[in-house]
Fold these 2 entries.
Entry 1:
Amino acid sequence: MVIKNGRIVSGGMTFLGDVLIEGETIKAVGKNIPEEGRCVIDAVGKYVIPGAVDVHTHMDLQAGQCRAVDDFYHGTVAAACGGTTTIVDHMAFGPAGCSLWHQVKEYHRLADGKAVVDYGFHGVIQHVNQEILREMGEIFRDEGITSFKIYLTYDNKLSDLEVFQVLERAKELGAVIPVHCENDGVVNYLREKFKKEKKEMASFHPLSRPSRCEAEAVGRMLHLAAMAGNAPVYIVHLSSMEGLKEIEKAACEGRKNIGVETCTQYLTLTDQCYQDPKEGLKFIMSPPLRSQEDCQALWKGIERGLIDVIATDHCPFCYSGDKQLGAEDFTKCPNGAPGVEERLSVIFSQGVAEGKITIEKMVDLLCTMPSKMYGLYPQKGVIQPGADGDIVILDPEKERILTKSQLHSAADYTCYEGMKVRGDIDKVIQRGRIIVDNHQFLGKRGDGKYIKRGKSILAD
Ligand code: URP
Ligand code: ZN
């Protein structure tokens, strides 16, 4: 396959040229690559970018009594249609006291033979003992699972001691620890308090998880990582200006080994979404949406290089189904929302087309840095010889209105309903095959490959 005369964006540059893919791999990038006998794709006037990488999804997640509605087939079809050709999925917690292998095996069962894009998993640590610390090494080595998520809130949160033990082990292995940062004590106290006071509408969800809960936990985590010898740590779904200030403090100290992720929704939606007591349920997620000021602070954080990755935290539930559990009491609403398909369109439109970031920066945030953070680079996230032939062809001039009926998640809504976006995904190519053409999914169930990942750049 040869993609001709596109505006190729990779490695911080944009240049006019062709991409030659042989089999599953990029063979050459240059000018005037001969067409004879090859499948030719005309990319004149279009951007040619690496397949996007989403390092924060929750396919088929069991969360309490509810299960996310996208399994690895539907969720990855949505990813593919949104230009994402690789995901790294965060596993759900397993049964109390289970070994670290339990969820690894369970997730292979859930994903293998179903996923249509390439995929990896983050391990999840829900308690700590010598056996778990040993299994981290085995799983790192045998499975290429080189990141292990921990939570500072929810029922399976780790204590400071457990966090510290995990960080020391991660440092030893060269693993990275993604962490969900919220102060559990305050969040639970406020949820209970609002319940007693009958403040049970969606609008109390953000008030029950204030920004400083995030900031306190981010700060604590960064101090613990420093004390563990600058263990590699990655803050997931940063949502607030207060949280960003903690990142900035660490950056001013010259700290390295820290990765920071925000998500599409924290850059583009606000807590106004909770004002409608019915519709507000669609946006119940943790951390919650914040103010316009927070959105602006996060865009600034991107500009200043404090934020490395934009992911999605795709965790869809149906509005007409499980989300209604929260109709009378927001604390009963399953947390999470869809977004894996919308990310590239929304960020191109609100970021690049509106002049907040360059196209090169967008590629860095959605493709290259996620790959580097999680040991997928240079196989993924870059257009250069030797990389997988994962490409998105994006038409910057076309406009589109995002609407649920044209999206592919099994959720019955999109958080971006009616949003007019500049830029349209023309084609998505995975390892040399066109899997999406003009929004039509052409791939096959089970064609996604499990990827054993290498070390994160944070572990260098
Ligand atoms: O509300 C969210 N984000 N649900 C998914 C699980 C998590 O906290 O990441
Ligand atoms: Zn998540």
Entry 2:
Amino acid sequence: MQEPIQEHIQEPIQEPIQEPIQELQWITVLGATGSIGVNTLDVISRHRDCYRVFALTANTQFDKLFEQCCEYQPVYAVMSDESAADKLRQRLAEINHTTQVLTGERAQCDVAEADRVDVVMAAIVGAAGLEATLAAVRAGKKVLLANKESLVMAGQLFMDAVTEHGAVLLPIDSEHNAIYQCMPGDYRSGLSQVGVRRILLTASGGPFREAALSELAAVTPDQACAHPNWRMGKKISVDSATMMNKGLELIEACWLFDTTPDHVDIVIHPQSVVHSMVEYIDGSVLAQMGNPDMRTPIAHALAWPDRIQSGVSSLDIIATARLDFEAPDYERFPCLSLAVQAARQGGMAMVSLNAANEVAVAAFLEEAIRFNQIAQVVEVALEQAENNEPRDIDEVKRADFEARQRALIAISRLT
Ligand code: NAD
Ligand code: MG
């Protein structure tokens, strides 16, 4: 028997006007003063009923961390730099603030693995973030991973630790967060099992996508850091300009989604509106789109599996009008080729790639080498990389140290 239509009309569907009520979550933000850290705190500030800050960490910027302590009242603030920690302590004491200031790498790990912590935002830049990110993983936390370098360095050991300790790993890198959103829930059983054919990893192409190749030798750090679509820290901005960032992201995607470089295609998409795509065996291609604003992946991962407001404005698809896609130019971006090579070569090559790149980018930012010499330094360090897999984190650290030495020697020969 059909139900009377009238009853449906009399009971209008209630639109949810409030966001899902979550239990209070305690969060540690590693790298709070950086671009990702600041965006994370911006999202948290919109949901103060849901999130409390347990700890904020930073390297040297005590004045910025002081302001964040006043605003977010963390239980702990950790500064890697001891003299910066002293200054922060002094400023907090002047206003009788209760946040306790700690220092050192062990303290960064302590605040990542503390019992009270539910969520850890891993947003330290570079290899410096490895230990604390791994501490969060080993403590079985919900880990929001921005620090892609730790996964590039220690991929297998990192992913094994996620499984062993039952951590929940959610990608913050906009591309990987997009891929995650386009994957079926059971993708961990294997991409071929769930009908995924390939991943399409999008890249803006950075500020030098169309520059004359002859001009690249003369570009300044400021020009390299002027990304057309994103405001980010200096290291990742230079990585975007050389496209090493996309190489690191290719490796990151292989570890996160348990796949090989052959199943990840890099696509240049200058508008940065499509954040990446997943193609299925039936020909369906799912894309995640939105304005280029890191608060979207941060809010997605923070609230997962729920959704919360992020402060990001609606995508104006009419104003966007065009979405362009093109193949990457490996001649223009030799760092991208080197990363693909390292991904095929194995674990130690990826450690060397990352370490040499960090040293070369720092040298470029100090104007000790030219922009196009970054790839030369990485290439030299990669030539001598071992071909095996690291068996533990100490081996990763040793290979990281040795690659840094090789990179420094290569730099001294260039200058
Ligand atoms: P950033 O340079 O703006 O900030 C880095 C943070 O790490 C700062 O808080 C700094 O104090 C801290 N830090 C630096 N060196 C440290 C050290 N030796 N010990 C302890 N702390 C240290 O960098 P960012 O742009 O926020 O990037 C952070 C991470 O997120 C990187 O791994 C980057 O690749 C990744 N990421 C960033 C973006 C972005 O939009 N900024 C997007 C995707 C991924
Ligand atoms: Mg990215």
